[in-house]
Write a structure and sequence with these properties.
The chain is an alpha/beta fold. It is built from 14 helices and 20 strands. Bound molecules: zinc ion (ZN) (2 copies).
Length: 445
């Protein structure tokens, strides 16, 4: 079979791999890059309204025959590994007749995000085909075995792809780790790795980043518990993505261990609700020790208005029952972990109890180290309210040790770096089977 890595051989984000056999062509992921050609953060505004042709000329999109809206479809399928934008963000450009294969959880999260976006920014997946863990399926000349992986993206998958007549096999890892609440997926996989892999396309995000103080989600729970115990203030803000379900589970566990309350906003409550359709272990606002912060953003709570228009609007009853407003925090007897993001700064500042508190930053530190508008907003919020920042986070990606363990167990004939900023280090870490290709270069497996 023939492979082309359209993007990903030397960068994190914007992954896209084309796999082709005699009569079948599929794509693995179609992500939006994190950086543009100058190395600056990729700005979605720069591509708004531009045609596919123009974006191909600007090297944002790739010249892939039969993929885009304006052409007769000849791509048989697009497989999406998970619901992070750097893996699915360019789907709106593809011909809607092309089937999209992904996990139910990934589909639910993409749709849930749509609820809070203007029409022009949504990713509508009209004809999804749901992938199930270890359930084989055939797409033309390929047999595909999707499998669930441990990652910060909910219900994320990797793909084992076999060309039917030849038996040639590739393994595309997508993004994965071994320190999350579903780390058993990693352990199970390497206990029983696929027999014969010709080409392993393995992510290497952590080759460029420090592992950090917290090896996994269990350590994150311990870190948060320590902050809650030591805090003199009752309200402890936590910066965390509303889509990082594993992390919210960790925060909930920390709240339970300290008999505190986890307060989420309606946006996060909605993400938990849709993830709860896939797994019974996801905290729901109906559960004890969880409340929902309703705030007035000028015209009431912007998130509530949007949820009330969805088919999940029966959750409005629970939202009403569990609501807490800025002035209610003073009456609470327990300590509070208050989940927040930059957009919530003005409403969080209406809670007097945050003054002088410790704030837990539970995301990749790179976001606040950059010289960006968002980073500046964060730091001025910290300064204004005399907050003390504690960085408690573990990566969504496998550490070097775990990558080594994975690569040695899979024992592929060829290891190809993807989703990494340091492909040149692969050989030192993973041995002589490493082969590097350039973005857009076609190679045979
Ligand atoms: Zn990624
Ligand atoms: Zn990811």
């Amino acid at each position: 079979m023939q492979l082309i890595i359209h993007r990903g051989t030397y960068q994190i984000g914007g992954s896209c791999v084309e796999v082709q056999t005699a009569d079948t062509r599929i794509l693995l992921d179609f992500g939006m890059p994190l950086y543009d050609s100058t190395g600056s953060d990729f700005n979605e505004r720069n591509i708004e309204g531009k045609s596919v042709e123009k974006l191909i000329k600007e090297n944002v999109l790739f010249d892939i025959k039969g993929l885009y809206r304006n052409s007769t479809p000849s791509i048989d399928a697009v497989l999406i590994s998970h619901s992070h934008k750097d893996h699915y963000g360019f789907l709106p450009y593809i011909n809607p007749k092309i089937p999209i294969y992904l996990s139910k959880g990934a589909y639910e999260l993409v749709n849930a995000l749509n609820v809070f976006l203007p029409e022009s920014k949504r990713t509508n997946i009209n004809n999804p085909i749901f992938l199930r863990h270890n359930r084989l399926l055939k797409i033309g000349g390929f047999q595909i075995k999707p499998y669930l992986v441990d990652h910060s993206g909910f219900d994320a998958m990797g793909f084992l792809i076999t060309e039917v007549p030849t038996g040639k096999t590739i393994l595309y890892t997508g993004d994965f780790r071994a320190g999350g609440w579903t780390k058993k997926r990693f352990d199970d996989f390497i206990k029983n790795p696929p027999k014969s892999v010709d080409c392993l396309l393995m992510e290497g995000t952590m080759l460029a980043r420090e592992g950090g103080k917290y090896p996994g989600e269990t350590a994150v729970v311990q870190g948060v518990v320590a902050v809650i115990k030591e805090s003199a203030n009752a309200v402890i803000p936590v910066y965390c993505s509303g889509q990082n379900i594993d992390r919210i589970v960790s925060l909930y566990k920390a709240a339970l261990k300290t008999k505190s309350i986890l307060v989420v906003d309606p946006y996060t409550a909605y993400m938990l609700k849709v993830a709860g359709k896939i797994s019974k272990h996801i905290p729901q606002i109906e559960w004890d020790n969880i409340r929902v912060f309703l705030a007035n953003y000028g015209k009431g709570d912007i998130y509530i208005n949007k949820i009330s228009k969805t088919k999940d609007n029966q959750m409005m009853i629970s939202l009403g029952r569990k609501k807490i407003k800025a002035f209610d925090f003073a009456n609470l007897k327990q300590k509070v972990l208050l989940l927040m993001r930059n957009t919530m700064i003005p409403v969080v500042e209406n809670i007097p109890q945050i003054q002088g508190s410790t704030i837990i930053y539970s995301q990749w530190e790179g976001y606040i180290k950059k010289d960006t508008v968002d980073a500046k907003k964060f730091w001025s919020f910290v300064k204004r309210n005399k907050l003390k920042v504690e960085h408690i986070h573990t990566s969504g990606h496998a550490t070097l040790d775990k990558l080594k363990e994975f690569a040695s167990k899979v024992n592929a004939r060829q290891i190809v770096p993807i989703h990494t900023e340091y492909p040149e280090r692969f050989k030192d870490h993973f041995g002589p089977n490493v082969v590097r290709y350039k973005d857009g270069q076609s190679f045979e497996v």
